[in-house]
Amino acid sequence: MRVIKAAIIIAAILFAAVSATADINMGGQARFYSMGGAGLASIDNPSETAAMNPAAMGLLSKRVRFTFPNFGVCADGASIDDISKWANDIWDLSGSQGVEVAREFGTHDTMLDAGASTGISGLGITAMLDGEARLRIIPNEEFKEFARTGNMPADPSQMQAVVWAEAAMSMPSISAGFKVPKFATGKGDLWVGARVRAVKGRYIRRTISWSGSNDPNNALSTSNEPVKEESGIGGDFGLIYRAPGKRQMSYGLAVTNLLKPSLGDINQETIWSAGMSMQPNSKTVVVADIVNMTDAYDEGTDLRMGIEFKPAKWLGLRAGYTGHVLTTGVGVFGYDFAFASETPLSISRTIRF
User: Fold this and answer.
1) CB 350 within 8 A of CB 233
2) Do 222 and 39 contact (CB within 8 A), yes or no?
3) pTM of this structure
4) Phi/psi of residue 190, each to 5°?
5) What is the Cα–Cα distance from 89 to 97, expressed in whole angstroms?
6) What letter does residue 294 receive in the DSSP assignment?
7) Residue ranges of the alpha helices (H) in 141-250?
8) Is the pLDDT of residue 351 over 80?
9) Cα–Cα nearest to 189, from 55, 296, 285
10) Residue 216 Rama label (left phi>0; alpha psi -120 to 50; beta)
11) Which of 8, 144, 172, 283 is the most exposed place for a label (fewest CB within 10 A)?
12) CA distance 240 to 250
């Protein structure tokens, strides 16, 4: 009982300490987000691992089940409430609206990411619906000065801010996996899986610059590029190998965009990642992944690490490192929550802009 009480207190402290300022994710991949974004070789909860590595599909039970919806939102440079005021109009930015958005948030770079997914699984197959949306406002130094002071900079022709919005849907993504027969794997166990995604993306870019007027109230104008839409088919591949032994060591490989979706101007690159998972006892899981070994999107390679401790069946306490920031999280009665100052990018992201 003392252990349970202590765990509840620790979870409450973690929540209070980070929830006011952190990115928050719940459901879906929140468990692994709280462990630094690592876990592509984890086999103790294959329905969650399958989101990152389709090979985990081979470990699922044959019964049909509903996948608990995953929701995530993160903001940097402005509050979610402030940015959400513009959400309904972002695809129809007129010249005046684009200027207004840029001036509202033009004192610093601003970012909003939001995503959700849900689906069903059974008989080694999962069908998922995934959606993501992002907003970026990127002003240069001259624009930031104008937004802060309201005064024209020394060289107004240098003022520029970019308003960039995108949304993507995977409708649907189909994953399947199977266990390789024993005679081909020796003493261990090997699972193989693949995912096919029908992807549709929609994006818009507005550039805010000097209008030529020296009147601060009429100093800005916006470009008028059309909204663009692209669609294509993408495919992922994965392996998970469980070594024989009491420590439940498993190793995984995930290849995102092995089949690259053709999306016009939206270039999609292949990402290779590998990981390991260990269960030293029934209450502890340790995970580590090497993410993006091919330096796709010039994002570099990250070593992600995490740990989960379960003092009770209904409670999990988690912490990790993404290669850049620390993460924390908690699971209570099957509901998972993750907190971080910067949510780790999922290797299975529907689309990258």
Assistant:
1) no
2) no
3) 0.75
4) -130, 130
5) 8
6) T
7) 141-149
8) no
9) 55
10) alpha
11) 283
12) 7
